[in-house]
Amino acid sequence: MNEYAARLDSLRAASKGVALYVSALVNIRYLTGFSGSAGHLLVAEDRAALFTDSRYETQAAQQTSGLELEITFGDSRPAFADAVRKRRIKRLGFEKNRLGYAAFRFLERELPDCRLAPFDNAVEKLRIVKSAGEIDAIRRSVELNSRAFDQACRKLRPSWTERRLAAEIEFAMRKLGAAGSAFPTIVAGGSQGALPHAEPRDAKPAPKSLIVVDQGAILDGYNSDMTRMISLGLPDRRQMELFNAVLEAQQAAIDAIRPGVELQTIDRRARQILRKSKVDGKRLDELFAHSTGHGLGLEIHESPRLAPKQRKRLQEGMVVTVEPGVYLRGAAGARIEDVVAVKRNGCEVLTPTPRQLRVIE
Ligand code: ZN
Ligand code: ZN
Questions:
Q1: How many angstroms does the Cα of residue 278 sit away from the middle of ligand 1?
Q2: I need a labelling partner for 131 at 20 to 30 A (CA). Which of 123, 298, 323, 360 fits?
Q3: Can you give the pTM of this predicted structure?
């Protein structure tokens, strides 16, 4: 049985006999391999059918196997509704966190004799634990992302604006084979670094200030995510204290990663380290304004979340980011982020880039 057929079977087992309408393209890709930009998947007890339009006729046939394919000219939703009626499906599950309101109303109108049952992240729950093949795909994406960072840093000139560096990083990704960046690259120097999701400015980062570089690539559908700190000349002691505290917090969180540990424990480890240091009279854990990490895979943000109050436990095969940060408003920010795979006896950091501050003289 191929990996996709096994995933469809796992979904059927989770849905306990209810036919499912999978509308999220990323979930369709996970379940079938089809990567087109339009499609609707019906997963019934004994078979699965993919509905897409004529732009994807060849691609759908190449990427999938063991599925019924129905190709329409234009919108394929009417054909989907037709198939549900023809199969006399009386109860149809839909992805309540994914299906838009208009699409839901369409189903209500077209399928008056069918009960529409919301289901909660059924495919996303399968995606939390990655297969060996998926971990390899994430590793390749992570390694490409690191090479792009390295290439852009080697070319970096003090005359470059934040926007120029972000563009060079993304250009390097594309030249190395990425489909694109996983999100708009963040380059944030000095006080901009205190905004966790800063937009690169058309301005040069100040010399001797911490610069946050947060970047991710997409390769073969899989995302990577990394944050590194660079500077043009060595920053002052106060900024180095911020950096070193974040580095220590990140290492402590990584050291705690192994199967069976509660997600909140990893987050707490990072906060415990930050609590020991102060800058400008403020405890650093109070300047850590987000959770410690997130899963990633076909999407840049997936379950699980390494965050307070998350009582579920890490499992072998999960892949998460570890990214504590501190943000000192109006002054500076520091964040360090790696991708980590949970292994049977611990974990493996997939990101090859050294975590030290990269000082460009
Ligand atoms: Zn990131
Ligand atoms: Zn991240």
A1: 25
A2: 323
A3: 0.96
